[in-house]
Specification:
Radius of gyration: 22 Å
CATH architecture of the largest domain: 2-Layer Sandwich
Structural class: alpha+beta
Oligomer: single chain
Mean pLDDT: 89
Distance between the termini: 15 Å
Strand content: 25-35%
Number of domains: 3
């Protein structure tokens, strides 16, 4: 079984919890996620199965879309409402000011957004994960990282509790908790993130995702393979068909001459290579040759 399952992560589960559950369901250790979601967050979590786990970093690089709740006047040590409250401030709930602050993060107005990652994150600095230092009460300087907010809008206001929701389409590595904190700082009252749902990860949508219960039920009836998407249908690279001696070389991990099959007519950097109708692997172009990046063929 090789492919990617679009899973709905429920609140209270870590991304590693989801992986562990699917390992038990499918009876294999070859299961991996494509980018963590916080335990309190919900939504789309693509999971790689079998040899598709070798492609996890490719799927993790996808742009993401979130719906997030922003709570004004409250600051926490984690950047979300699950953390310890460190400061509370009065709020002037001005909807126009909120819209302007939110819109100011759009790439058309700001370009790349330099974002400081939260202390409670899995980023490593000096060989140590930030959240491990944070749990010891330590706070260190974190270099700002460039991310991109492709689209951002206010969805709904909740003035009775000083909150509003936003929809954000952003690049890999964007922390919505840090975005909430920065919006609060711009409004002068501080903020923290409440609910968070990831609704899209490139081709994976919340509308076509499966719950763990649905996946378990499908596995019990032997229908679970119908839930997986083949990796070459997800990553839209051109296809190259090879055969004979060229195929034999490819199956041994050797580079193949660029120009085989359709490759010579297509100006791309990466290709899916097939032999006798079977997927061999993902290849990248260097000069006039294709070199294997990820071997998908089972020997």
């Amino acid at each position: 079984m090789t492919g990617v399952i679009n899973v709905i992560k429920q609140k209270g589960y870590t991304s590693h919890d989801v992986v562990a559950i699917l390992r038990r369901i499918f009876g294999t250790k070859k299961v991996g996620h494509t980018g963590t979601l916080d335990p309190d967050a919900t939504g789309v979590l693509p999971i790689c199965i079998g040899r598709a786990t070798k492609l996890a970093e490719y799927f993790a690089a996808a742009d993401k879309t979130y719906i997030a709740e922003i709570i004004l006047g409250v600051e926490t040590n984690t950047g979300d409402i699950s953390g310890e409250i460190t400061k509370e401030s009065p709020v002037s709930f001005d909807t126009d000011a909120i819209i302007n602050a939110v819109k100011s993060f759009h790439v058309e107005k700001r370009g790349e957004y330099l974002q400081v990652p939260p202390m409670y994150s899995a980023i490593k600095i000096g060989g140590k994960k930030l959240y491990e230092l944070a749990r010891k009460g330590e706070t260190i300087e974190r270099p700002a990282r460039p991310v991109v907010i492709y689209d951002i809008n206010v969805l709904e206001f909740f003035p009775e509790r000083n909150a509003f929701t936003i929809e954000v389409k952003c690049s890999k590595g964007t922390y919505i908790r840090s975005l909430a904190v920065d919006i609060g700082a711009m409004l002068g009252c501080g903020a923290t993130m409440g609910e968070l749902e990831r609704t899209q990860s490139e081709l994976f949508s919340i509308a076509t995702a499966y719950t763990l219960d649905e996946i378990k039920a499908a596995a019990e009836t032997g229908e679970h393979t119908s839930l997986t998407l083949p990796p070459d249908k997800i990553l839209p690279y051109p296809h190259v068909e090879i055969s004979g001696e060229v195929l034999a070389k490819a199956l041994n991990g050797n580079p193949i001459v660029h120009g085989t099959g359709r490759a010579e007519a297509v100006q791309h950097e990466k290709f899916w290579v097939y032999g006798n109708g079977q997927l061999v692997g993902l290849y990248s172009k260097k000069g006039n040759k294709l070199y294997v990046e990820v071997m998908m063929h089972e020997k």
